[in-house]
Structure formats: C-alpha cells, structure tokens
Write the structure tokens for this entry.
Amino acid sequence: MFIKPVRRVFTQDDLAKWIDSDTYKEVLDFITQLQDSVIDKSNDDEVATSPVIAKITHLLDEVYQIIQHYPVKLEKDISRFGKVEFRDFYDEVESRASDLIKPICPTGLIETSTYFADSWGDRTRIDYGSGHELNFICFLLCLYRLDVVNQDDFPAIILKVFTKYMSTMRSLQRTYWLEPAGSHGVWGLDDYHFLPFLFGAAQLCNHPHMKPKSIHNDELVEMYRNKYIYMECIDFINNIKTSTNKQQEKLSLRWHSPMLDDISAAKSWSKIKDGMIKMYKVEVLGKLPIIQHFMFGDILKCPEGIPEHQHVETDCGHVHDLANTWGDCCGIKIPSAIAASESLKRGVPFD
C-alpha cells in the first residue's frame, strides 16, 4: 500500500538508526551504481536510451516551461534574497506532479510525486540545497524500485536525465535567486549541489590529459563544460562567484571554493571519485539538518525503531532539541552569489 512520504528522523538517536538501516544502504548503493555507470563516459557518448528516458526528460522539459510561466517582476529596489515568484512555480509543479508523472509510472504516484515536487527547493524559504537534490535521486530510486527503469538505463539516467535536471536547476537558481539551503554550502563544494561532482569525477577517471588540476585552466573548463558534468560545475561557479567591485573581477577558486581547490591537488580522478562517496556519506546522508527532511513512505521505508515523534516545527522546518542562536541548524540566512552577480549586471549596488 502506497502512502504519502513523511519525515521521521528528528533526533541523533533517529539518525543513528537511519545510518544503520536498509533504506540508507539502498540509497547509497543506488548512488554508487549510478556513479559507476558513467566511468569514462562523456555527456555526448552514445548510451542505451530506452523510451522511459525520453519520457523523463520530457517531464523535465515540462518543469522548465513552468518556470517560463512565472517571470520575476522587476522591483525598483532589488531584494538580495529569493524571489517570491518561485512560490507560484513551486505550487504549479506540486499541483501537477501526479499528472506529469503518470505517463511514466502510474503506480505509486502519491510517493513519486512527493519526492519529485520536493526536488526543486523549499517553497517557504525559497532556497535549495543537497537535501532537495537528494529528493530527485529518491524520485529516480522509486522508479527503479517500481521496475520503470533498470540498470541498463543508469548511464542515460546520469548523462541525459540528471544533466537536464541540473540545467533546469541552474535556470531556477538564476531566475528566482534561490538561496543556499544553509550557509555551510558556501564553504563546501558548491552553494547548492554535491552529486554533480560525485558523478562528474567518475566521468573523468581515465581521461588521457584532463587532470584534477585542470579545473584551474579556464580555457579547458570552457572547452569541456558541455562534455563533462564536473567542468560545467566549475564553469558555473567561476561565472557566478565574482567580486562586488565595479570591475566584477573573478575571484580565484582558492578564495570562494577552497574545498574544490584542495581536491584539485589529488593525484587522480579515481581518488576524487572514491572520496566523493565517503564525503557524501558524512556531509549529506549523515547530517541531521539534512536527513530531518528525508521522507519515508512504502517504497523507501522508515528504519525500524524510529518512533513517531510528537514535535513542534520551527520556521526552518526542523525540530531543535536545544536553543540555537548561531544558525547552525540551517545556517545563517544569506543571499545567493547569483543575487550579487545579477545585481551587478543591472548596475545596482549590492552591499
């Protein structure tokens, strides 16, 4: 029996049960298999593409069209934070999710549509982070569990579907100035994403001349941004993370993305590939502020032993066991680098 997925992890004890659960292992194994499926494959490689892959990419095209229905109304005083029109976009995706998914998978719509709707960010906070990205993976995992896609589809899921999801998310981030979900992201890999680096490192494992340090070569990054997911991410970061002076000078990776800079010193992409899985386990699947938002239904079952809590949610959607005055739960609310970049393009001071 399919049920609407709900949140169940609220305490450190719950988190420990989650990490030790079959569902945790299932999610991690799915991500690892997807990563392995694109080793040494570029975005334009010919891979097996079943009819369902075309249906899923069409689904993402539909989401992109919904963005076009809700343009941002330019304000006299440009806000530094997320644009409220995002809520109109989100409401339409949420209301239409079941109908959009039905041609792909008419079974379990109450569960697949929940994960899909929550793949695009938080309606209230107008932000996006690795937890929302994880929801998209859960949507795909549900399709796998329901035998809609199979392992033969895995390369196309990354090279055709996930890349289109990323492209759609870039449009959302630029259009509505989505804020990073928590301030920690700005010191990590990316303000918003983790998985494109995890999958992207696999693509480059045995590349004949692209080394980890190649991310510092702007010409190579630009040349390969459409061919490799990792390079697209670096190109996006390089073009967004500008200084706020009149010249809009690009800052070096060392200044705005020190972790990426450190990773570039690795001897091989294979080491980065393996390290990304280890990091994902700690920084995403093992973080309570993220897993507090993870939803369990009938397809992705709640781990045994986690009680149904009586709780009162805060405005961030989390349960706080202790008073938190430093914003460590969700991070201090900060405007996106995209907001700063777009403000500069329009000649508006961004203080």
